[in-house]
TrEMBL record:
Entries under SUPFAM superfamilies matching the protein: Nitrous oxide reductase, N-terminal domain
Domain YNCE-like beta-propeller residues, every copy: 2-55
Domain of life: Bacteria
The name this protein goes by in its record: Surface antigen
InterPro entries listed in its UniProt record: N2O_reductase_N (IPR011045), WD40/YVTN_repeat-like_dom_sf (IPR015943), YNCE-like_beta-prop (IPR048433)
Organism: Caballeronia sordidicola
Organism placement in taxonomy: Bacteria, Pseudomonadati, Pseudomonadota, Betaproteobacteria, Burkholderiales
Pfam assignment, any one: YNCE
Amino acid sequence: MGPDDMELSADRKTLWVTFRFARDVGVIDLNSRKLIDTIAPGRSPHELYFADRAPVYAPNPD
């Protein structure tokens, strides 16, 4: 029952993770690396998308 999908907040302070089969979304504080909150959105939460999110940097295609 591990993490399914993840999204990084725009301030890069929290990582939001879906625990699909546990039916929760977890919020992890990246400084402490601890789960600070869980949210029960309903049945099988899958995929996260923040309109205001941290930028994605692709590796250099050397």
